[in-house]
Design a protein that fits this description.
Strand order of the largest sheet: 2-1-11-10-9-8-7-6-3-4-5
Helix content: 40-55%
Distance between the termini: 16 Å
Largest sheet: 11 strands, mixed
Number of helices: 13
Number of strands: 11
Shape: globular
Structural class: alpha/beta
Length: 348
């Protein structure tokens, strides 16, 4: 499997580091517990004092299954998206949340998308309200019941929908509900960065193109293509330490203080929809991480740990599906691998 590099930004003023610079802290081999532990023990002197191996931290935040729990305790996740043209994306995000371990998954979509999404799966709770004039009020009624909101899958760029989503983001932020913003939700944030500015319960998951658009909107210039790590850190910092996940050949994750690079082995197959699998999974893991608290993440940002877990899981699903289906792999094949991939990574 691929290696995982840990990078940390050492700010100006540190000994021997007057201007601030990147410090490489170690490289980790295959995602097998004993191998990882041996790899990290060899680099023990190079690890930041309070940062444990991310795989271990992800395992720490996963709630144990128990017959004593009631429905809803392990996660009620909302997906905001789905229009006439795009019905698959909200389905993939919502079903992935369930497959990872959420108990309930709600989809808030446009009216024309609702019957199609309902037909995909009887497990989803579908609300055809997103294009209503009172959409914000309709969604706001459900917010007290939700643990996290994933905004953007299949949203489209129709002005009326975007205006409603703006109100939903503002209402969610006012209630302190974690939000994961993906796809056309990122288009909206690029137009109005203040929607997430300083909200440290937000996670943005841009691909290469979306990252460039966000970076230009927030920092007023193009991304330095020669630097794979510091642009993500700078964007996070400019947004007030909002967690940013730049998806790509390697997934680069930053909360403005630390940077993780996830290079878990996937495949060369890039099918539409796998970003939705990531965002839906991330909604659940963010809830679990915040519920567990920083003591379970050894002081590291819970959202940073959750993002690493979702990136790793998505790549493992891609790898396993590709082993079976090769070039014909689709996101439906990846969703079918979620249970086995989760178990092999975090429960073995």
């Amino acid at each position: 499997m691929g290696a995982l590099w840990l990078w940390f930004w050492r700010g100006a003023g540190a000994a021997g580091n007057p201007e601030g610079r990147w410090m490489a802290r170690g490289v980790v081999g295959p995602a097998c517990v004993r191998v990882l532990e041996r790899a990290f023990s060899r680099h023990k002197s190079h690890l930041v004092k309070d940062m444990e191996h991310p795989f271990h931290l992800v395992r720490n935040i996963i709630p144990p299954l128990s017959a004593k729990k009631h429905k809803g305790q392990d996660g009620r996740i909302g997906i905001v998206g789905g229009c006439q043209e795009y019905t698959g994306a909200p389905y993939f995000a919502a079903i992935s949340a369930l497959k990872v371990g959420a108990d309930l998954s709600h989809v808030f979509c446009a009216r024309e998308a609702a019957p199609v999404i309902k037909a995909y799966s009887p497990e989803l709770i579908v609300h055809p309200v997103l294009d209503n004039p009172d959409a914000v009020r309709e969604v706001e009624k459900w917010l007290p019941r939700l643990h996290a909101l994933v905004v953007g899958p299949g949203l489209g760029r129709e002005d009326a929908l975007l205006e409603n989503v703006k109100g939903i983001l503002e209402a969610s932020r006012a209630r302190g509900i974690p939000v994961i913003v993906d796809a056309d939700g990122l288009w909206l944030v690029a137009q109005q960065p203040a929607l997430v500015q300083g909200y440290q319960k937000a996670v943005l998951t841009p691909n290469h193109v979306e990252f460039g658009r966000l970076y230009d909107a927030v920092l007023g210039g193009p991304v330095d293509s020669a630097d794979n790590h510091s642009p993500v850190l700078r964007l996070s910092q400019a947004l007030g330490n909002v967690t940013v996940v730049q998806k790509g050949e390697q997934d680069v994750i930053s909360d403005g203080q630390q940077v993780l690079v996830c290079s878990q082995e996937g495949s060369g197959r890039r099918c539409g929809g796998q970003g939705d699998l990531l965002s839906g999974s991330l909604g659940v893991l963010v809830h679990w991480a915040l519920l567990a608290g920083p003591e379970k993440t050894n002081g590291s940002s819970p959202l940073l740990v959750a993002a690493f877990g979702a990136c790793t899981l998505t790549r493992q699903c891609n790898h396993q599906a590709f082993q079976k289906h090769g070039r014909s792999t689709t996101t439906t094949d990846m969703v079918a691998e979620l249970g086995a991939a989760f178990s092999s990574l975090f429960e073995a």
